[in-house]
Amino acid sequence: MMKLVHLFGSSSSSSKKDNKVKKRRSGAKSCSFGSTTSSSSSDESVTTPRSVLPPSVASSSGTKKPAAVTREDLEVALRRVVSSEEELAEMLAVAEAEAGLVLEEIAAAAADEGELKETFAVFDADGDGRISAEELRGVLAALGDELCSVDDCRRMIGGVDTDGDGFVCFDEFARMMMHGRA
């Protein structure tokens, strides 16, 4: 049987038939994309691609940060599964529209988080990353609320302090502020 390994860029030769195939394919580009899995027996060897994405994208799948997929990468992958140019164009248009919405949401979230961090910093007077009852009392007094006591501030903090440490960390503060907007 003819070895299919030649189609995926691996080298192996054992028969005259294989050598003829190699000669015909010698000028052709490799069709390998990303990682491959090989299985072999004494007489035949087959390599199956594990990804339709180019090696630059497929090889980074084990990293913590996901690899960016370019429009060209997506087009290459989609060409392998769609049946017409119209279908390809439609799928690319949908992907680009959704990517645009995701980028808008990320930008809005970053802006919101930036504003929240600035607001949190006003309350976190000592800059230790948490708001104490005393710090909350100081901000309320500066805003003109002289009647609110430190005990009142402890009770307010208790309402948002999910980890029970007696302070409001940034995550708890952000959760409280976002919940208040909804």
TrEMBL record:
Keyword Calcium: yes
Domain EF-hand: 111-146, 148-182
Highest taxon of source: Eukaryota
Chain segments carrying region Disordered: 1-68
Pfam families: EF-hand_7
InterPro entries the record matches: EF-hand-dom_pair, EF_Hand_1_Ca_BS, EF_hand_dom, EF_hand_pair_protein_CML-like
PROSITE patterns: EF_HAND_1, EF_HAND_2
Stretches with biased composition (Low complexity): 30-51
GO MF annotations, alphabetized: calcium ion binding
Annotated keywords: Calcium, Metal-binding, Repeat
Role description: Potential calcium sensor.
Protein name (Swiss-Prot/TrEMBL): EF-hand domain-containing protein
Organism whose genome encodes this protein: Oryza meyeriana var. granulata
